[in-house]
Amino acid sequence: MSTGVSDRSAARIEPPDRREAPPDDRLREIRDRDRPGGAWISRRSIQAADSYGVAAVLPCGERVIVRPARPRDAGMIQTYIQALSPASRHNRFLGSLNELSANELYRMTHADSCARPEALLAEKVENGGRIMIGEARYALLPAGLGSEFAVSVAEAWRRKELGTLLIGIVACRAKALGARYLAGDVFQSNEPMLKLTRTSGFTRTEPVTGAGLVRVTKDLSLVNAAQPCGTRLADSWMIAA
After folding, report:
1. CA–CA separation, 178 and 144 (whole Å)
2. Which among 79, 75, 39, 88 is positioned nearest to 59, based on CA atoms?
3. Is 44 left (phi over 0), alpha (psi -120 to 50) or beta?
4. Domain regions of the chain by residue span
5. Which one of 3.20.20.210, 2.30.22.10, 3.40.630.30, 3.30.390.10 gives the CATH number of domain 18-233?
6. CB-based contact 140:115 (threshold 8 Å)
7. pLDDT digits (tens), the chain, 241 positions
8. From CA 4, how far away is CA 152, in angstroms rounded?
9. 87-96: b or e for each residue (b if 16 or more CB lie within 10 Å)?
């Protein structure tokens, strides 16, 4: 996998309306403490995360959902990828690409195993419908000690902290699967992504020979395992996937 296009800004996230919360003691409202002024997000416990997503309010005031992809999402994902600029698709997939193959769409919407889950989709809820505005993928490496990841954000949604939110959720989930580090390959020319990974706690570990890429790595021991994504507990609210 590769890392993809990125965004960044100072986050200020607040809890959504509690009245929408179902009566389930596994639902939690949690605040990200990994970054100053971090995002208020809402999610099920790790055990139930595959069926339910994360709700957050971005610094601009927009409410978004991050949830696992489902087979019915294939068309929406393809439309999203096609709408990215050629440069964004090149950065995300490390090469020229206009649209995803049927096999790649299947892999994004179906989990091969716990080690290679389906993609995570970021959506904006608008007029009762959902618009895809970003995506992330992660998969454990063969030895199980690390996890590779990839992320992209729609052009209009960059510099709004969505990329930071996606990376934080991926880091949380990868550590829950036993990964000790998160890693991705980034084009040396993709300075926005390199800047995002630096501010998200990644370090450059090695260049990828002959490909114009560098590898970035984050130590997941810095992510609090006791509370998902390094958070403290607060009130409950959840959006079903």
Report:
1. 7
2. 39
3. beta
4. 18-233
5. 3.40.630.30
6. yes
7. 446 533 333 333 333 333 333 333 332 333 333 333 344 443 333 333 344 578 888 888 888 999 999 999 999 999 999 999 999 999 999 999 999 999 999 999 998 877 788 899 999 988 878 899 999 999 999 887 999 999 999 999 999 999 999 999 999 999 988 999 999 999 999 999 999 999 999 999 877 766 789 999 999 997 865 444 433 222 222 333 3
8. 5
9. ebbbbbbbee
Task: Find out whether 28 and 233 touch, Cβ atoms under 8 Å.
Answer: yes
pLDDT reported for residue 52: 59
The residue assigned the tokens 């994004």 is 108
CA-wise closest residue to 40 among 61, 65, 58, 26: 58
Token digits for 59? 């610094």
Cα atoms found within 13 Å of the Cα of residue 202, Cβ hemisphere only: 26
Spatial neighbors of 212 by CB under 8 A, at least 6 apart, are 187, 188, 189
Structure-block tokens of residue 117: 């889950």
Q: What is the largest CA-CA distance in the chain?
A: 54
Q: What is the per-residue burial (b if ≥16 Cβ within 10 Å, else e) of 168-181? A: bbbbbbbbbbebeb
Report how far residue 112's alpha carbon sits from residue 110's, in angstroms, rounded to the nearest whole number: 6
Retrieve residue 148's tokens.
């590779």
